[in-house]
Amino acid sequence: MKFTDGLWLVRDGITINGAVQNYVVEKTPEGLTAITQTTPITGRSATLNSTLLTVKFHSPLPGVVGVKIIHHDGVQERGPVFELTKGTGDHVKIEETDSETVLVSGGLRVVIRKGQQWAVDFYHGDERITGSGYKSMAYITDQDGNTYMREELDLGVGEFVYGLGERFTAFVKNGQTVDLWNKDGGTSSEQAYKNVPFYVSSKGYGVFVNHPELVSYEIASEKVKKAQFSVSGESLEYFVIDGPTIKEVISNYTSLTGKPALPPAWTFGLWLTTSFTTDYDEATVNSFVDGMAERDLPLSVFHFDCFWMREYQWTDFQWDERVFPDPVGMLKRLKDKGLKICVWINSYIGQRSRLFEEGKKNGYLLKKPNGDVYQCDLWQAGMALVDFTNPAACEWYAGYLRDLVDMGVDSFKTDFGERIPTDVVYFDGSDPMKMHNYYTQLYNKVVFEVLEEKLGKNEAALFARSATAGGQQFPVHWGGDCYADYESMAESLRGGLSLGLSGFGFWSHDIGGFENTAPAHVFKRWLAFGLLSSHSRLHGSTSYRVPWAYDDEACDVTRYFTKLKCSLMPYLYDVAGQAAEHGWASMRAMVMEFPEDPTCEVLDRQYMLGDSLLVAPIFQENGEVKYYLPAGRWTHLLSGETVQGGSWRKEKYDFFSLPLFVRQNSLLAIGSVDNKPDYDYAAGVKFGLYSLEDGTGTSATVRDLKGAPELTVKADRKGSIVTVTAEGSGKEFSLSLKDLGAISSVEGAEQVDETTVKVNAGAKSVSFTITLK
């Protein structure tokens, strides 16, 4: 929200009371409290009829400093609030000199100046990373009596801002006005399904605004050297989060707001759906499933979209008996074919649903201020919304989900959750403005916890559309409604990369686009992108998404990339484990892995899949692609070609390839199975050792299906000698040299050919050396 008219003037009707002078800084049990004046104090009389701002500094975790700016402290706090990790505060140090008071938390320092002009500076070590200066912190009123709190943090020369949730606009947020308000706006607008009040800077720090309500950002827009954010009310709290790398920032941020859960391994396979408004019954479903099997197209999950329930009755959790007369038997028959089952749900209850009367009678539905049930006709006729602030309503809703899990359902697509009204009353008295974005957190939490309860930890997975901060704890999320063209494919990727820089570890999208039906060439290019994403789903609106509906080659492309992804699962599941442990996205923006390369700071049409694989999807019918390889040796995974990076490349590919490169000094684990995603990854795993430089080392971890490390292999090179150690499984594995020349001799293992070594099953601790020619 803009308050000024250019650099010098204030907009009509706006009054800004900004911090100008430090009155006092006091030590508190939580940290520091500063009192700042909004007018200079020239004498005792100047203290009358004045506005003060109270600024509290505290640190919940090392490397994280909270700043709370308060005007009037008598405002009654109403929830909801983000659930944040709070440490003991023992890590905090307070230092004071004649000119400044300092709070130290890990490698982060916040310095409050004692001079005549208000200034707060944040340092990593000796480097100033950002700060709040004269009049930046402010209490603002408008002509209608509305009040706002504002902060402006400095942006340096060449500094870029990323994140703020899944945003489909430009990847770099500089120059944008961003209002965080969940909306069902598709992927082709400035609106977003997943609004997260957190951004990360290319300078290696992040800022989390601790407000679930509307947060309005001006990122180098109202003032081009400031990242401004504001909220309505009498207080504003934000956290500056230290790095110094983007990966460390995100790790610290997710330590504060929650780490992503680890999805079960089966979710990484190919998902196929009925699509949205298409006609289908059990025979149709079987024709899809059997058609995939007949064409040797590995399928892991079948999803039933909305019309598994009868029209007008969503959500009632009841199979439409006209087309599914034997749902229990049908699900068993599908599961006997090796499939997992997902069904579509949402949190809206149509008036014709069997749940409506129950919800109305028991007070489980959102109400208007006069006590009536809130209803509308947008989506389902007469629909109401479940009030997830009511514990009894949560248990009521969860009970129906348990019944479906008992029937054979393994996962739920938790659609919608964005169209949440603000003229309503919640059971627990929550502020409806704060609940608009936060509603999805409660909704997805209820569903996720049912799956964990019924299926076990690391067996729960959603396919969710809406989210806010903390939503990363309930994966997986998908990008929403996109068109079936290259532009939407690209905007989907931008959204996924932004979400990954907002703490979300797992992300998917509708392969081929949701709206309309893609030309075959778009579908085939999207297949490569989709099957090199963390999760992969074929889904559409008005037409089926089975590959043979496009052309025969689409089947071949589907088979090729699905099998490739299954074979990559030992690597991908370790990447998933890193997401759960550190908060790092599986699909990482280039700047996340190469923060020192200025070219990577703006790249949004390619990404790193984990830390070792570079993927550049193709967005043109003719197969041409322009992409950038950072400095170092890169080996194309499919062709084996090795090239030197540090430059842009322009190439042309057929439908069975794309730029897919392995980074130098990588030890890449390839599985022995290519027809399903969940198997014994350590059994017969093949490691590729890529361009290992002299004097360097690398390692790879293979996990079991619960995400626990099972086999760890390390390789170190000194001159022509490569020393390899393995700890863990005791199962047979092999190691092949890539761009390292031929083997001269091997000690401690069996040489297979001039580039490959095999370790037989047996010992759980292995060490051997390879001498290079």
Automatic annotation (TrEMBL):
Domain Glycoside hydrolase family 31 TIM barrel: 260-574
Catalytic activity field: Hydrolysis of terminal, non-reducing alpha-D-xylose residues with release of alpha-D-xylose
Superkingdom, taxonomy of origin: Bacteria
Keyword terms: Glycosidase, Hydrolase
CDD domains the record matches: GH31_N, GH31_xylosidase_YicI
Transmembrane segments: none
Organism name: Paenibacillus etheri
One GO process term, biological-process aspect: carbohydrate metabolic process
Listed EC numbers: 3.2.1.177
Recorded family membership: Belongs to the glycosyl hydrolase 31 family.
GO molecular function: alpha-D-xyloside xylohydrolase; carbohydrate binding
One Pfam family of this chain: Glyco_hydro_31_2nd
Presence of keyword Hydrolase: yes
Record domain Glycoside hydrolase family 31 N-terminal: where: 56-213
Glycosyl hydrolase family 31 C-terminal domain: residues covered: 586-667
Protein name per UniProt: alpha-D-xyloside xylohydrolase
Record carries keyword Hydrolase: yes
Enzyme class: hydrolase
